[in-house]
Amino acid sequence: MIRFAVPALCAVLITACAPGGDAATASDVTAGEVRPTLFVANKRGNTLSKIDLETGREVLRLDSCTNPHELATSPNGKHVALACYGGTTVDIFQTDDLTKVASLDLGENARPHGIAWHAGTAIFVTAEGRKSVFRITGPLSDTPEFTEFSTNQDGSHMLAVSPDARTVWTTDLGSKTVTRVNLDDASDLRTVTVGEEPEGISLAPDGSALWVSARGSNQAFELDPATMEIRNTLDTGAFPLRLSIRPQGDVAVTSDLMDGGLTVIDLKTARVARSIEVSGKAEAQQRFQVTILWSDDGERIYVAETASNTVAEVDYASGKVLRRLPAGEGGDGVAILP
């Protein structure tokens, strides 16, 4: 099904209070000013947070949608797209003041989750409830084009997109599979079983390898992106919920929820290089780390801690937690504006 949604041009002027009692209002945001910024989707609070990375302060928190999850910033940095997992839409906000400028409806039972905003101005998003992936071309135009590609797998949750935007890979939690979708030929599907409950997924910057973490089997897998053959399998920490490759392409990290740490994988050797303690096992359930995100320079790792409503900022070189940034209730999806 292809559906068109007219952008909802509604300025959201709600203010909220940041943790600790500091007022977070639109007046804190200077028009046109570009600052290092982190955006956090707060799935329990149904809000979207904006955090100034220079000061570490949450400068804005506004209502979003029901059960918001993954986020993606636009190539020009002017917008951030939010997957509304509790509904059927991808909502788009301006990054300067979080004004909502579009709400793109994917149709009945969509449950959008994994999302990427490609440099070619298209948004790619999984529709878990429809066992599919959507490509939304011209998402901010008057007539955005929706194209739906079936995965035929249960729980298509997270995704990765090729540099040329002609291929998408999904992790399918319910089916315990990873699926390759050829966007030039929707009938060309390649699916392989990968561990127990594969969820994290990341493509090497040069497209040479696809890495997946399987949270149910405490493993990470290297796959050939074209043939879907499993090249390497290695053990990680407990419950590796996410996997993210450093922008420089040399290492990947998994977010090991039950251990409260990160497993660092050397991609050249396909071996574990070291572990980084974020909260440690003793506080793992009090922190409940979920989504992970690299800074563009590869020097910092941001780890969403859903239970404590914080985001841990980790120095990659030393492995030290530099600070914990306040967010809303149940912070999960994160996106960065350099």
Task: Give a short synopsis of this structure.
This protein is an all-beta fold and 338 residues long.
Give the helices and strands, then pairings.
Layout: E1 16-17, E2 23-24, E3 37-42, E4 47-52, E5 57-63, E6 68-73, E7 79-84, E8 89-94, E9 100-105, E10 112-117, E11 122-127, E12 132-137, E13 145-150, E14 156-161, E15 167-172, E16 177-182, E17 189-193, E18 198-203, E19 210-214, E20 219-223, E21 230-235, E22 240-245, E23 251-256, E24 261-266, E25 271-277, H1 284-287, E26 289-294, E27 300-305, E28 310-315, E29 321-326, E30 331-337
Antiparallel strand pairs: 1-2, 3-4, 3-30, 4-5, 6-7, 7-8, 8-9, 10-11, 11-12, 12-13, 14-15, 15-16, 16-17, 18-19, 19-20, 20-21, 22-23, 23-24, 24-25, 26-27, 27-28, 28-29
Search tags:
338 residues; mainly beta; Neuraminidase; four-stranded antiparallel beta sheet; 1 helix; 30 strands; globular; disordered N terminus; signal; YncE family protein; Host-pathogen_enzymatic-act
